[in-house]
Amino acid sequence: MSEGSTGSGTGQTRWLWDARLQQDIEEIQTRVRAMGEQVERALKTSLEAVLERSRPKAYSVIVRDQRIDRLEKDIDHLCLEFLLRQQPAGRHLRFAYATIKINAELERIGDYAESVARQVLKVADLQELPAPDKFREIGQVAISMLRSAVDAFLRQDAELARRTMVIEDHVDRLRGELNEVLLGAEREGRLPFPALTPLLTIARRYERVSDQAKNICEETLYMCTGEYWKHQGPGGAVRILFVDATHGVRSRMAAAIGRNLEVEGLQFLSAGLEPQPLEEPWRSWMESRGMVEATSPPQSAPELLSRHNIAVVVALEPAARSIFPTPPTPTVAMEWTVPDPQHWIAQGLGPEAAAEQLFQMLRLQVQDLAHALAGE
């Protein structure tokens, strides 16, 4: 009788522990679902603000960002309580870890929505928005990708996560197309120069939404399967390789900008398909600003890829896509639309102004990439 009572008590205790564990998981999932809905609403409103150049909608996104910040803190607190109370292992531990990471990704996406809204305030007086259909498309695709990424996490659906991740390449291409339209409109005088950077920033923010959605999918895959890709070289350094045709000013300047950011754990490299020494006037311009990459020996992109573990390859012109590793691969490949500065000289800019314009364009993109890789 005593032994039977003891067994029954143990079973009851186990049942109560399982029930509380499931209750905690469901509460965390409910908060994450609410967080995802708030972030998606902010993105949708920010997109409407862009398309309508609406100050009221932009202000509403900015004001409501604090709600997302509060939700992030609530979810972090719930996860900490979950870890302390349940002391989980295996899949449940991976759930807590993935939730903490995804929570941070969602908060960052909320910041992107706020950033878009702030850019809208700078262009609200534009009579006409260049390429509104492309802005609508990149925004809608990024928002849809985010929704699927959150659904994959909540449903613990590894296959949905895998299907959603591949959408990022489409968003990257949309951003490249949009950049070309905006730069062309500015060159042709159809877009005021002060409006160019805010509109480029808006396009970049929606692309970053897709990047963060992909990160959410990766965390979901880790939660579901226990597999986690690491893009690190010896010593833990994450290597980023910028590639153009000749190891010219675009790839060298991008690497120099990255190096000068001094982000711990990141190593920035540059190379070309058919490398050559850097020509004037670009060499002198880079040297005058202390960029040692100006005089570094020409590097072959295929050779660097074969010798080093590269985490990210960035093609700075369409031809450089030829060296992208063949999937499946842990290396992330992306293409940036970065004009050859000789094009600006042909349009009437002097070499100094062309180099400065290239620098400003690359600086924004390299900073965003470095911060994303550093998890800031």
TrEMBL record:
One of its GO terms (biological process) is phosphate ion transport. SUPFAM superfamilies: Phosphotyrosine protein phosphatases I (SSF52788), PhoU-like (SSF109755). Signal peptide: none annotated. It comes from the Bacteria. The keyword Transport applies. Keywords: Cytoplasm, Phosphate transport, Transport. Pfam families: PhoU. Its main location: cytoplasm. The keyword Transport applies. GO terms for cellular component: cytoplasm. InterPro entries: PhoU (IPR028366), PhoU-like_sf (IPR038078), PhoU_dom (IPR026022), Ptyr_pPase_sf (IPR036196). It is found in: Cytoplasm. Belongs to the PhoU family. Homodimer. Plays a role in the regulation of phosphate uptake. This is Phosphate-specific transport system accessory protein PhoU homolog. It comes from Limisphaera ngatamarikiensis. The gene is phoU.
